[in-house]
Amino acid sequence: MSDDFLLLNPGPVPLSEPVRAAMDAPMVSHRSAEFEATYERAQDGLDEIFTASTPSGESTGEGTSLILNGTATMGMEMAVSNLVDPDDEVVSLVNGKFGRRFARIAERYADVTRVEADWGDSLDVDAVAEAITDDTALVTLVHNETSTGLLNPVEAVGDLVAEHDALFVVDGVTSIGGDEFRIDDWNVDVAVTDGQKALAAPPGISAVFVTDRAAEQADGERGPFYSDVEWHLRKADQHQTPFTSAVPLFRSLAVAVEEIHDEGMPNRIERHRRQSEAFREGFAALGLEGFPEVSGPTELSNTLTAISLPEAIRGDESSAFFDAVKERNVSISGGQAHLGGDIFRVSNMGNLTADQIARGVRTVGEALGD
Ligand code: PLP
């Protein structure tokens, strides 16, 4: 891979030199004091990111960050499976690939009602209000829908969840670490994020934040053996994981969250907002249209941008465009599932510079002109 390769996919994202270097150190036991110190550094950083991702940096929640050997799908499954019984009613909100994934996971463990909108459309909050009742045990929602570039209304849904005293499990995989996230104010019980996204750590490691209320309900008798929340909480007290830890990934994560601490979440949120705006404005100046339809409390993502391909190069015709981007040593993503060939997506998650954002726009412009 040459030095000027620019990775703009919505995960994995580019790594800083110190984050990469952290993986290349002599191995230690996952039961050693050295490893426990690494776990503690990563956990301290995550606690701050989960609870104080606000524009002014104030704290919005209390609980425990658990670090997992595995990508965020493992965290999503851990969150749901430890909190429901098979006859419990779950409401899953679906307006993209990852909302659908959450529903599919929940369907393995409980009785699920889906509230759906077309991928790229905003969720209808009135329909959500109708679906959540006093019988609802748990609600799943993806905050930042990576497949479409929509920022779903966690606060509005969280108010409805709280009215019915249900549990609220939120996928913040492509928002947490780059955008605002408010645990208590939004009534979130469990939040999930991933190393490889806005945290700018390598893929293969993820984290869940378990509030004390959710912890009380995780009794160690439900869910997959490997993802037992109660067991993970007990081991996290000792700065360990129940099973062998992916030591190099934990080391990288510790450095990545310290870099976030050094930038400061308020600055990081502001920078991500500025950079996503720059992407949107740049693509608009090329005559391109944004893909998602925003209405109600839904907003456009601040961490990734989805753009409709011009009619003339949709479907099979789109491969020449994607090839032309690739030839310029830039990596972007197409649409997922049925959106393949209709849209492209770029991420501004992590630690990109203004020059890299500008290069992304310039490259798309050149590729369209080819
Ligand atoms: N949730 C969202 C919103 C995502 O964007 C992703 C990855 O792209 C995931 C969950 C987790 O996916 P995986 O476990 O395949 O890394």
Based on the model shown, name its key terms.
about 375 residues; alpha/beta; seven-stranded mixed sheet; binds pyridoxal-5'-phosphate
SSE diagram, text form:
Blueprint: E1 6-7, H1 17-21, H2 33-51, E2 63-69, H3 72-81, E3 89-94, H4 97-109, E4 111-116, H5 125-131, E5 136-142, E6 144-145, E7 150-151, H6 154-163, E8 167-171, E9 190-194, E10 205-211, H7 212-217, H8 229-237, H9 247-263, H10 265-285, E11 289-290, E12 299-300, E13 304-308, H11 318-327, E14 330-331, E15 333-334, E16 343-347, H12 354-369
Parallel strand pairs: 1-14, 3-4, 3-5, 5-8, 8-9
Antiparallel strand pairs: 2-10, 6-7, 7-12, 9-10, 11-13, 13-16, 15-16
Helix pairs in contact: 2-9, 3-4, 10-12, 11-12
The protein binds pyridoxal-5'-phosphate.
Structure report:
By secondary structure, this protein is α/β, with parallel strands linked by helices. It contains twelve helices and 16 strands. Strand 15 (333-334) and strand 16 (343-347) form a beta hairpin. Helix 2 (33-51) packs across helix 9 (247-263), helix 10 runs parallel beside helix 12 and helix 11 crosses helix 12 (354-369). The longest helix is centred in the last third of the chain and has 21 residues, at 265-285. Residues 11, 71-73, 98, 142, 146, 171, 173-174, 194 line the site of pyridoxal-5'-phosphate.
Strand pairing plus helix content: what structural class?
Answer: alpha/beta
- Write the H/E string, N to C: EHHEHEHEHEEEHEEEHHHHEEEHEEEH
The hetero molecules present are:
pyridoxal-5'-phosphate
The global form is globular
The order of strands across the largest sheet is 2-10-9-8-5-3-4
Task: Please state roughly what percent of the residues sit in beta strands, choosing from under 5%, 5-15%, 15-25%, 25-35%, 35-45% or over 45%.
Answer: 15-25%
Radius of gyration: 20 Å
Number of strands: 16
Compute the average pLDDT. 97
Distance between the termini: 24 Å
Q: Which ranges are low-confidence, i.e. pLDDT below 50, for 5 or more consecutive residues? A: none
Q: What level of helicity do the residues show?
A: 25-40%
Main beta sheet, described?
A: 7 strands, mixed
Number of H/I helices: 12
